[in-house]
Design goal:
With 298 residues, this protein is of the alpha/beta class. It is built from 14 helices and 9 strands. The protein folds into 2 domains: 161 residues, NAD(P)-binding Rossmann-like Domain (Rossmann fold, 3-Layer(aba) Sandwich); 124 residues, Orthogonal Bundle (N-(1-d-carboxylethyl)-l-norvaline Dehydrogenase, domain 2), CATH 1.10.1040. Bound molecules: nicotinamide-adenine-dinucleotide. The site of nicotinamide-adenine-dinucleotide has 28 residues, from α4, β7, α7 and α12. Belongs to the HIBADH-related family. This is 3-hydroxyisobutyrate dehydrogenase.
Length: 298
């Protein structure tokens, strides 16, 4: 049986690793949070007391960590993955991180003799639970093919993006577009309400009209309209404002590096940062809707 080590059992890592358990893999997991470990245990993941223990006997290692700094620490740090993983383990980073960090991980993994791919995902926690995520994978074609075999139980689509780091480049652009669509839903839902429209009637129209988007279908920020929306659950995070602000920041950084002006992305990045400044960093990113409302009431 193939042994998979999963590092980072949060909102995404938990349902993703659960799908590997269901597919018959022996999954060993590690997270710094005991609550995350306990939820993973309930899904059949064999949780371990340390990264070192989790890496024992790994054929494949997945990481699903918050930011570039966490991924760098997990791979490159003392007693990290490159130091402790079995030498023939295949390494797959599915976190969303900056391209520079992804390239640093590729280089270090290559120098240490490992096969590594950057394989970020899109589809949110609903796609993670359903096993329908889109994976965008950067790296050597042989490595991408090897990774795809183990990614299949979690994926609706697997797209090779080209050389090292291109998976992250695709993910950063995709998420920039997602947040702009989310801002459109935030402004649209408030304006529809203030114009006296019934939210269900308006959503039904937009969802079969030119206002449709993934954000509208999955994160529409009004309670009682879309089952998967955080709005139904007092904006408890499905995708936290902190992580969304990180991704919007990565897009702005890429814009600066390439000389591309991104005014819409800038606006939504400011609103996500405002959520953090106002103490809502752990809440869902769709709470930016409160800044679209003149009185802050949604
Ligand atoms: P999360 O914060 O819920 O989970 C991250 C987990 O990593 C936490 O449980 C944390 O304790 C753990 N962790 C941090 N450092 C660690 C370490 N050194 N060792 C072990 N565990 C460690 O975040 P998430 O929402 O699951 O997102 C994870 C990644 O996926 C992020 O890069 C995010 O941008 C990306 N992403 C999220 C979504 C979403 O909808 N939530 C969708 C697509 C991609």
């Amino acid at each position: 049986m193939t042994t998979i080590t999963w590092i980072g059992l949060g909102h995404m890592g938990s349902p993703m690793s659960a799908n590997l358990v269901k597919a018959g893999y022996d999954v060993r997991g590690f997270d710094l949070s005991e609550a995350a470990m306990s939820a993973a245990r309930a899904n059949g993941v064999k949780t371990c007391g340390s990264m070192e223990e989790a890496l024992q006997g790994a054929d494949v290692v997945f990481t699903m960590l918050p930011k570039g700094e966490h991924a760098r620490a997990a791979y490159l740090g003392e007693e990290g993955i490159l130091e402790l993983a079995p030498e023939d383990a295949l390494l797959i980073d599915s976190s969303t991180i900056d391209v520079e960090s992804a390239l640093a991980l590729h280089k270090a993994a290559d120098e240490a003799g490992f096969v590594f791919v950057d394989a970020p995902v899109s589809g949110g926690i609903s796609g993670a639970a359903a096993g329908t995520l889109t994976f965008m994978i950067g790296g050597h074609p042989h490595a991408v093919e090897a990774a795809a075999e183990h990614i299949r139980p979690m994926a609706g689509k697997i797209v090779p993006t080209g050389e090292a780091g291109t998976g992250q480049a695709a993910k950063i652009v995709n998420n920039m577009m997602l947040f702009i669509c989310l801002e459109a839903c935030a402004e649209g839902s408030v304006l529809a309400d203030r114009l006296g429209l019934d939210p269900r009637v308006f959503w039904d129209i937009a969802s079969v009209s030119s206002g449709n988007s993934w954000a509208l279908q999955t994160w529409y920020p009004v309670p009682g309209i879309v089952d998967s929306a955080a709005a139904n659950n007092n904006f408890e995070a499905t995708f936290s404002a902190v992580l969304a602000a990180k991704d919007a920041g990565l897009a702005l950084m890429a814009g600066e590096q390439t000389g591309v002006d991104l005014p819409a992305a800038k606006l939504v990045a400011e609103r996500l940062q405002r959520l953090i400044d106002d103490g809502y960093g752990d809440k869902d990113c769709s709470l930016i809707t409160k800044y679209a409302a003149p009185d802050g009431k949604i």
